[in-house]
Design brief:
Strand order of the largest sheet: 11-12-10-13-14-7-15
Helix content: 25-40%
Largest sheet: 7 strands, parallel
Number of helices: 13
Structural class: alpha/beta
Number of strands: 15
Order of helices and strands: HEHEHEEHEHEHEEEHHHEHEHEEHEHE
Distance between the termini: 47 Å
Strand content: 15-25%
Shape: globular
C-alpha cells in the first residue's frame, strides 16, 4: 500500500469507529470522495444493511460529478440520492440510512444549516466532510449539528506526509490609477480616476447603515475586483509568463474576457475548454465561479487569484487545485490593491495559513 492508501485506511477506520457519525476534515487531494464511499460500503456491511438508502448533499454540480466518477472507478454503485444544499427541504423528512454532506463549509448558514442540523440530530449515521473548513465555520456546524470532529487531517498534515506538494503564496500589491479619467455610471454618468471612485464608494460604505450599507459594500467589492488597475497588472503578469501553465480565478465574466485566454464558467454552453485544459491541450484558462471543488488538474503549478473576499475556505479551495503531487511546489499568485479594506479582506482569508509561506510584493 502507498502512503496515501494507508492514510485513507486510517481515516476510514476512524469513520467506522465513530459509527458513521461526525465531522470529517480530510485535506484537499487526499481522496475524500473515495474515503467516504469506502466507509459507507464497509460500515453498511458491518451493521448488515443491504442496499442502504444514501443521501449525498452537495453545493454544486462539480461535486456530484466527482462522486459519480469515483463510483465508476471503484465499480461501486450504491443507492445514492443526490441533492443540493438549497433543495434539502425536499429530502429532510426521509429516514435515510446514511447521509453524507460534502463540502460542508459551503452550507448556507442562515437558512440551510439549521435544517441540516435538525437532520443530524434525528438520524443515526451522518457525516459532514470538508477539506478546507475554517475555525469559525466549524464552530457554527458543531453548534447546529451537535456532532464532534472525528477526523482532523488538514492540508499541512498532507504536505508533511508528501501526499500533496507544498506551496508558496505571492501577494502582488498594486496601486489604483490616480491620473487617468474613466467614465462611471449607467444612467447618470461621470468621469473620475479609479482611486477617487474607490474613495467615493468607501465613503458611502462608511456613512450608511443596514441594507444600504450592504448594498454599497457590494458595489465597492464589484468595483475593486474588476477595475482596470487590477486587469492591467494581471495582464502584465500573463504577458510575462506565456510559457507557464496556470488557472486564473476571477469573479466576473466581463472581466474574464479582458484577459484574452480561454474561459469557462457556469454559463458556458459546454465543458470543451475545461476538458482541453485538463488534458493539457491548452495551458491557460480563466475560471469563473467554477473549478474550485471536485476537479483535478494535472501538471498545474500556478494559480492566479484576482477576486478577493475575506473567506479563507474559498482561498484554500482555489490553491488546492495546484497541490496534486506531480509538480514542484505550487505558487499561488494573489493580486490585491493597496486599499486597506481589501487588504483586510485578504488578511482574513489568509488566516490559518502558515505566514512563512506568504510573500508580499508591491508592483
Amino acid at each position: 500500500m502507498t502512503k496515501k492508501d494507508l492514510i485513507q485506511e486510517d481515516i476510514i477506520n476512524k469513520i467506522i469507529d465513530s459509527k458513521f457519525s461526525g465531522i470529517v476534515e480530510s485535506s484537499v487531494r487526499s481522496g475524500k470522495t473515495r474515503i467516504l464511499l469506502n466507509s459507507v460500503k464497509r460500515y453498511s456491511e458491518l451493521i448488515m444493511i443491504n442496499n442502504p438508502n444514501i443521501l449525498v448533499l452537495y453545493p454544486n454540480i462539480d461535486i456530484k460529478t466527482s462522486w459519480e466518477k469515483e463510483c465508476e472507478i471503484l465499480e461501486y454503485f450504491p443507492n445514492i440520492t443526490y441533492c443540493t444544499f438549497i433543495s434539502v427541504d425536499k429530502v429532510k423528512d426521509i429516514d435515510w440510512d446514511f447521509v453524507i454532506i460534502d463540502e460542508c463549509h459551503l452550507i448556507p448558514k442562515e437558512n440551510i444549516l439549521p435544517i441540516i442540523g435538525n437532520m443530524c440530530q434525528k438520524l443515526k449515521h451522518v457525516i459532514l466532510a470538508s477539506g478546507t473548513i475554517s475555525f469559525k465555520t466549524l464552530v457554527d456546524i458543531k453548534y447546529y449539528t451537535k456532532l464532534s470532529v472525528i477526523v482532523n487531517y488538514n492540508t499541512e498534515d498532507a504536505i508533511k506526509d508528501e501526499i500533496i506538494c507544498d506551496y508558496q503564496i505571492i501577494v502582488y500589491e498594486y496601486e489604483l490609477d490616480s491620473t487617468n479619467l474613466v467614465e462611471f455610471g449607467k444612467t447618470k454618468k461621470w468621469k473620475s480616476t479609479e482611486l477617487k471612485e474607490c474613495n467615493r464608494l468607501s465613503y458611502k460604505v462608511d456613512t450608511t447603515q443596514g441594507e444600504e450599507k450592504m448594498f454599497n459594500a457590494l458595489n465597492r467589492m464589484r468595483f475593486i475586483n474588476s477595475c482596470s488597475s487590477l486587469v492591467n497588472n494581471v495582464k502584465k503578469w500573463i504577458n510575462s509568463n506565456t510559457d507557464l501553465r496556470f488557472i486564473l480565478f476571477t469573479g466576473d465574466e466581463n472581466v474574464g474576457k479582458k484577459y484574452n485566454i480561454p474561459m469557462y464558467n457556469s454559463k458556458s454552453k459546454d465543458d470543451l475548454v475545461l476538458k482541453q485544459f485538463q488534458n493539457e491541450e491548452i495551458n491557460q484558462i480563466c475560471l469563473i465561479k467554477k473549478g474550485k471543488q471536485g476537479i483535478t488538474f494535472k501538471s498545474l503549478q500556478h494559480i492566479l487569484i484576482t477576486a478577493i473576499d475575506s473567506n479563507s475556505e474559498n482561498l484554500s479551495q482555489a490553491l488546492g487545485r495546484a497541490l496534486l503531487n506531480d509538480t514542484e511546489n505550487a505558487i499561488i499568485h494573489i493580486f490585491v490593491s493597496n486599499q486597506q479594506f481589501q487588504k483586510k479582506w485578504l488578511t482574513s482569508a489568509l488566516t490559518g495559513i502558515n505566514q512563512n509561506k506568504i510573500q508580499w510584493k508591491k508592483i
